[in-house]
Amino acid sequence: MSTGTLLAIIVPVVVVIALVAVAVFLRRRRKLRERFGPEYTRTVEDADSRMAGERELRAREKRHDTLDIKPLDSGVRDRYTRDWTNVQDEFVDRPEDAVHDADRLVTSLMHERGYPTHDFEQQLKDLSVEHGRTLEHYRAAHDVDVLSTRHEATTEQLRGAMVHYRALFDELLADGGRPRHARA
């Protein structure tokens, strides 16, 4: 076989392999963006490079897969709903206490679902895999909770924290009712 014939065969094969590799790479990136939502952008911007950020997100997925995240039965969901109503009612007379209680209730719900709850930064990473779109709510609420422990949060900030906690609470509670295989 001549060199020209070999090149005529090898070059298109290499081009096809390169195109397939690029397509696979772009598909993986798109899936990460879809899964993590705004957390994708935040993680990539905080990383040294896009590749490092995406590697971090894939590591989060792998860790998340090892967790025993479980759905909640209806009785447990009803109890958490009642507890949330009590926390909201408490806000009128004791807003700082209500925000602290909301934080504890959300943490308790995460624990009940199977998320580790000992380290806030790890909580964020673990939650980001399935709750990336509401993670900013959790961050904002937590920041106000920290402020309120020093009695530096305004009533409006405390009210906002309750709204933010509610967003994650509702998602965790609703997601808790679906079987694991039904989640995306």
What does it look like?
This protein folds into two domains: 3-66; 74-182, no CATH class. The chain is built from eight helices and no strands. The longest helix has 34 residues, at 3-36. The protein starts with a helix and ends in a 9-residue tail after the last helix. It is an all-alpha fold and 184 residues long. Helix content is 79%, strand content 0%.
Note the topology:
Blueprint: H1 3-36, H2 38-46, H3 50-66, H4 74-91, H5 95-113, H6 120-131, H7 135-149, H8 155-175
Helix pairs in contact: 1-2, 2-3, 3-6, 4-5, 4-8, 5-7, 5-8, 7-8
Name the features.
184 residues, mainly alpha, 2 domains, 8 helices, 79% helix
Subunit arrangement of the protein: single chain
| Termini gap | 51 Å
Overall helicity:
over 70%
- Mean pLDDT score, rounded? 89
Total beta-strand segments: 0
Largest sheet data = none
Percent of sequence in beta strands: under 5%
| Low-pLDDT regions | 177-184
Class based on secondary structure composition and strand pairing: mainly alpha
- Determine the number of helices (DSSP H or I, runs of at least 4 residues): 8
How many discrete domains? Answer: 2
Shape: elongated
Order of helices and strands: HHHHHHHH
Radius of gyration: 22 Å
